[in-house]
Amino acid sequence: MKSNSMTAYKRDVKEFASFLESRGIKSPREASDADVAAFLLKLKQDDKTGATVNRKLASIRAFYRFLNKNGILETNPAEDIKSPKIAQKEIEYLTIEEIEKLLAQPDRSVKGLRDTAILEVMYATGIRVSELVEMNIDDVDLRIGFVKCTGEHGKARIIPLGRPARAATEVYIYDERKKLQRGNKDKGNALFLNFYGERLTRQALWKILKAYAAKAGIEKKLTPQTLRNSFAVHMVQNGADLKSLQELLGHEDLAATQIYLTVSKNKIKDVYDKSHPRA
Q1: Domain that residue 129 falls in
Q2: ∠ CA 93-95-100, rounded to 5°
Q3: 57, 179, 202, 238: which one has the fewest Cβ atoms less than 10 Å from its Cβ?
Q4: In this predicted model, what pLDDT tens digit does every residue of 82-104 receive, in sequence order?
């Protein structure tokens, strides 16, 4: 079990034990299936997501299996508890045509050229908003054409930059970024700067996307996650394999990447329904 998974497992079991204590049960060995069900109900009442509830239930099951295996306990009160169904959220993404409209919005001003680089990099790499705003100049290799970023779990990964993103980033770094620095060269080497010469914030990035979406006439809610989704969906639709996409997105679990398959399958079904005479 990976270290981050082990940490989550220990945290889940500790939370369950605390819940039992609040019910007057001193040890998990004294818990019944009703106690496990009550714990899951409380999680639901606390507005925990289905995925979170399922993970905590899996941790509790694994804990009791460990007790069974080592002869500490004969029964597993979590074994027959059903996992809650997870409601599948519809993935929000832009079509290729909408992406083209969005990318055409920034002008040739300093801000516009910076924003062109931002939009191109986000769509070219599918990186998270936190990864974009935390990126430094040293993380960009324009000669070879890639960016380096550190994901949610501290694991660095290398992502290729397409030609348009590479060209836009080169113009921004060599011609426009120094204009935004405003003499603040001692404030670090953040890649994307605001007009105070400081690192661009997540909130500022959200505003930038919202403004360009309105300008492009895109009615969908445009967030950094929407662009990340668009990158993934378009990759799948054009034949990318899931394992490679998982590495590019920085997903720990392949299941997180598989949700993008549903969009591709749904599109194929729509095409079939509209095209086949006996659909």
Answers
A1: 96-222
A2: 115
A3: 238
A4: 876 655 567 899 999 999 999 99
Residue 213 included in any domain: yes
Question: 44 is written with which tokens?
Answer: 């639901």
| Predicted structure pTM score | 0.67
Domains: count for the chain: 2
Rounded CA separation 138/141 (Å): 8
Report the distance separating Cα 123 and Cα 224, nearest Å.
Answer: 9
20 found inside a domain: yes
